Amino acid sequence: MNVNIEPSWKVVLEEEFNKPYFSELSSFVQKEYKQTVCYPEGKNIFAAFDHCSFDQTKVVIIGQDPYHGPNQANGLCFSVQDTVSHPPSLINIFKEIETDIGKPYPKSGDLERWAKQGVLLLNATLTVRAHEPGSHQKKGWELFTDEVIKKISKEKEGVIFMLWGGFAKKKIKLIDKDSHHVLTSGHPSPLSANRGFWFGNKHFSTCNQLLMTMKKVEIIW
């Protein structure tokens, strides 16, 4: 796998790209993409980094796996390509934004607009086989993305981490809570949201209040 990634990330993650596990991961991913249909498209595997440089990163949202249906995944967690109907979790994210900050529900589910403002939309696993959720888990991606979180924690200050659901909350151990802000809630999936663990978390207004306090530009959600 040719790691074509945004230059500032290339510098920060260079050590990882040279480790044996990453070489094995690369071979696995290349083989999978040749033999079967995988998502996102090869050019979008590192889209989260390409649209949000290391220097620009001020908010981190952590997902688990890319969408595994046709034309959905675009390399940003929870995000779908422009013309695709919104999956249930994304619908609930937009509904919470609507009630939290009064922003109307958007037509496009492409969250590139967030990424370009400094929101790193990071899936723990960056690839998946079509129609097989979790098929690329435990192949090395988690080692890589955990290192990404550690690097942000160690080398930056005042980053706001949004950890939604049990899986994301486990990443709290990788974050220096004295140097950064951590917001946690249930997952936006219907299972969690309908049980009262998502709606009303006010993460989007809280995030902007924190950014304002730090004299940083707020996110236009």
TrEMBL record:
InterPro entries: UDG_fam1 (IPR002043), Ura-DNA_Glyclase_AS (IPR018085), Uracil-DNA_glycosylase-like (IPR005122), Uracil-DNA_glycosylase-like_sf (IPR036895). Its EC number is 3.2.2.27. GO terms for molecular function: uracil DNA N-glycosylase activity. GO terms for biological process: base-excision repair, AP site formation via deaminated base removal. PROSITE patterns: U_DNA_GLYCOSYLASE. It holds the Pfam family UDG. The keyword Magnesium does not apply. Gene3D superfamilies: Uracil-DNA glycosylase-like domain (3.40.470.10). Its main location: cytoplasm. Keywords: Cytoplasm, DNA damage, DNA repair, Glycosidase, Hydrolase. It is found in: Cytoplasm. Residues 50-211 form the Uracil-DNA glycosylase-like domain. NCBIfam families: PRK05254.1-1 (NF003588), PRK05254.1-2 (NF003589), PRK05254.1-4 (NF003591), PRK05254.1-5 (NF003592), ung (TIGR00628). Excises uracil residues from the DNA which can arise as a result of misincorporation of dUMP residues by DNA polymerase or due to deamination of cytosine. HAMAP family: UDG. This is Uracil-DNA glycosylase. The lineage of its organism: Bacteria, Pseudomonadati, Bacteroidota, Flavobacteriia, Flavobacteriales. The gene is ung.
